[in-house]
């Protein structure tokens, strides 16, 4: 099944579904192997894995290059965190074209201003996009997609910007009317009270997506009861890898040997398995003339 159709089905499913964060080809593959049906290509994670801030410091074509590796490495669909669409409607619709060429199943855009600021950075109220301008962006993206199953998700940042339910609903309804296939409602509260308020007021069938990074202690059963379509675990592969890399680097630096770490890390054979080295071996046997077979068969 097409990746775009797979993603559409995730959002249309009657039960609550999950997307797991990945930020490169390796983490995308690990998400797939864990059993997830879809991937969240997180802007925060991709930017920080590049060593830059989540402030559109990486160009959109640099993000696209990362996505290409992620998409090639996996069979499950990828939803790109497309920030604000990297400009106005014209930039956003060109993004859709380029994503489809790379077999990316959908993109989420948020109603903030370029260059964006991560929703959890506390530097005063974050300005929101004009509703009509953002609706035009959504329309241009929906009009541009060649594959009818490509998904455009509209992310409402009104709670993040300090507004209440009324503004959040007004925006969600406008974006739905503009053609968004799903609405992501973001909140930075430690509890799920804003999400609960929103879900109780949302009467439409358009799927609602949430990101419980800050309200992580809320049981998933509550989100299911509220009718949340999809939950995004937004940055946990990145955070796990930061923790693991800090620990291993410090230990090797201090010990000046590998004794304490060897049994705590993935084996080299595991790297080869993930890279599908066996497949190349088989292909070489099939395609390389025997006289040119220079590989070491002991691999
Ligand atoms: C991301 O993963 O980059 C997101 C989610 O946009 S958050 O960082 O929670 O805003
Ligand atoms: Mg982001």
Structural account:
This protein has 299 residues and is α/β, with parallel strands linked by helices. It folds into 2 domains: 3-234, Alpha-Beta Barrel (TIM Barrel), CATH 3.20.20; 242-288, no CATH class. Helices cover 46% and strands 12% of the residues. The protein is built from 12 helices and 8 strands. The protein has helices at 3-12, 25-34, 43-49, 60-73, 89-101, 131-144, 165-178, 193-201, 220-226, 236-255, 268-275, 277-287, and strands at residues 17-22, 39-41, 78-81, 106-110, 151-156, 182-185, 208-210, 230-233. An 8-stranded parallel β-barrel has the order 1-2-3-4-5-6-7-8, surrounded by 9 helices. The chain starts with a helix and ends in a 12-residue tail after the last helix.
Keywords:
binds magnesium ion, alpha/beta, 8 strands, globular, 299 residues, binds sulfopyruvate, 46% helix, eight-stranded parallel β-barrel, TIM Barrel
Beta content comes to 5-15%
Which blocks of ≥5 consecutive residues have pLDDT under 50?
none
Please name the CATH topology of the largest domain: TIM Barrel
CATH architecture name of the largest domain: Alpha-Beta Barrel
């Amino acid at each position: 099944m097409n990746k775009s159709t797979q993603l559409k089905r995730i959002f249309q499913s009657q039960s609550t579904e999950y997307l797991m964060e990945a930020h490169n080809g390796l983490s995308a593959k690990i998400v797939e192997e864990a059993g997830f049906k879809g991937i969240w290509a997180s802007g925060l994670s991709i930017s920080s894995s590049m060593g830059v801030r989540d402030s559109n410091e990486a160009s959109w074509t640099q993000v696209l290059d990362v996505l290409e590796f992620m998409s090639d490495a996996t069979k499950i669909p990828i939803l790109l965190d497309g920030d604000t669409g990297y400009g106005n409607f014209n930039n956003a619709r060109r993004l859709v074209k380029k994503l489809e060429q790379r077999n990316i199943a959908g993109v989420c855009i948020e109603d903030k201003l370029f260059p964006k600021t991560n929703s959890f950075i506390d530097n005063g109220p974050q300005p929101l996009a004009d509703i009509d301008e953002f609706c035009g962006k959504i329309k241009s993206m929906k009009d541009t997609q060649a594959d009818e199953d490509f998904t455009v998700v509209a992310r409402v940042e009104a709670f993040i910007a300090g507004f209440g339910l009324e503004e959040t609903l007004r925006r969600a309804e406008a974006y739905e009317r503009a053609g968004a296939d799903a609405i992501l409602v973001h909140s930075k509260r430690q509890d799920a009270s804003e999400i609960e308020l929103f879900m109780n007021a949302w009467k439409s069938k358009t799927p609602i997506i949430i990101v419980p990074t800050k309200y992580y202690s809320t049981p998933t059963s509550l989100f299911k009861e509220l009718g949340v379509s999809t939950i995004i675990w937004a940055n946990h592969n990145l955070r796990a890898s930061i923790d693991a890399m800090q620990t291993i680097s410090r230990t090797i630096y201090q010990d000046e040997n590998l004794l304490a770490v060897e049994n705590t890390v993935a084996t080299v054979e595991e790297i080869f398995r993930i890279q599908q080295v066996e497949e190349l071996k088989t292909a070489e046997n099939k395609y390389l003339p025997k006289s040119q077979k220079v590989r070491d068969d002991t691999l």
